[in-house]
Amino acid sequence: MAWVESLQKAIDFIEEHLLEDLSIEDISRQANSSVFHFQRTFSILTDTNVAEYIRRRRMTLAAKELTTTDHKIIDIALRYGYDSPEAFTKAFRKQHGVTPSEARKFIGNLKSYNRLVIQVSLKGAEPVQFNIVEKGRFQIIGVKKEFSCLNDQQQQEIPKLWDEVNANGTSDQLYELNNGQIKGVLGVCTMNQDQKEKNLLDYWVATEYEGIVPEGFQHHEISASKWAVFAVNGAMPHAMQKAWKQIFSEWFPGSGYEHAGIPEFEMYPGGNPFSDDYYSEIWIPVK
């Protein structure tokens, strides 16, 4: 459960430096993680992103200070990282639904977000369906785009890429070209060392393919590994989001496995992804 402790260490770091200029790089470093993997794990377990957590916590403490002290609003705004009363008021109203001046007069209700404590369940109410697969090195072909990991930008842009490949027929081509053991279209995140340093990643919509790369597609080699393959049953995107959360909060802590550090991926076979009986998979390299 070292990864749980690392994540909690990063959250504690945020709290200890909440009034300072926090960077996602410094926060991720506390968890011995890349920006991408830290933000992904944080979002899966907390249902929010790092920037939003920091904003909520600052506005919670700002509300407390407004209602328990006579400090000037401009001073409180500066203390919590806002250069102007207008920017502070906008952020404050977004969370609490009232202005700082109204809060000081005890008008309306305030919304408080407590400090996060990561908890995991070692015994889930629902079974996690998985099997362990040994697979040698294999090639994927497809299309890729580079995205920034900062402020979870990739979370907003990756769905647009899927809309694009579904609309222009690329995903249909990949289904037809698939000739490997893994049947379906894959969503794969990869990053080289240079990208890690710049907080960038490549996201692939791809398929396993043996042979010469067809014109119009790029290729990438996935290293040999032991894989935990999780069955995902249900309509997208809810079923996939639910499965990721169950894996991180229930399966990993009690499994005895660790992430092997090479790209993980989601596998989508043919069929209607919005159907309640749709089947897909999550493949995570483990050691």
Instruction: Please identify the structural class as seen in this structure.
Output: alpha+beta
What overall form do the CA principal axes indicate?
A: elongated
Report the sheet-strand fraction. 15-25%
CATH overall fold name of the largest domain: Multidrug-efflux Transporter 1 Regulator Bmrr, Chain A
How far apart, in Å, are the first and last alpha carbons? 14 Å
Helix content: 40-55%
Strand order of the largest sheet: 1-6-8-7-3-4-2-5
Architecture of the largest domain in CATH?
Answer: Alpha-Beta Barrel
Question: Short summary of the structure?
Answer:
This protein is an alpha+beta fold and about 290 residues long.
Structural notes for this entry:
This protein is an alpha+beta fold. It has helices spanning 2-16, 24-30, 35-46, 50-68, 73-79, 85-96, 100-104, 153-167, 170-177, 193-198, 238-255, and strands at 130-135, 138-148, 185-190, 200-208, 218-222, 225-233, 265-268, 279-286. Strands 1-6-8-7-3-4-2-5 form an eight-stranded antiparallel beta sheet. α1 (2-16) crosses α2. The radius of gyration is 22 Å and the shape is elongated. The model has no long low-confidence stretch (mean pLDDT 92). InterPro entries: AraC_E-bd (IPR010499), GyrI-like (IPR029442), Homeodomain-like_sf (IPR009057), HTH_AraC (IPR018060), HTH_AraC-typ_CS (IPR018062), MarA-like (IPR050959), Reg_factor_effector_dom_sf (IPR011256), Tscrpt_reg_AraC-type_HTH (IPR020449). GO terms for molecular function: DNA-binding transcription factor activity; sequence-specific DNA binding. This is AraC family transcriptional regulator. Keywords: DNA-binding, Transcription, Transcription regulation.
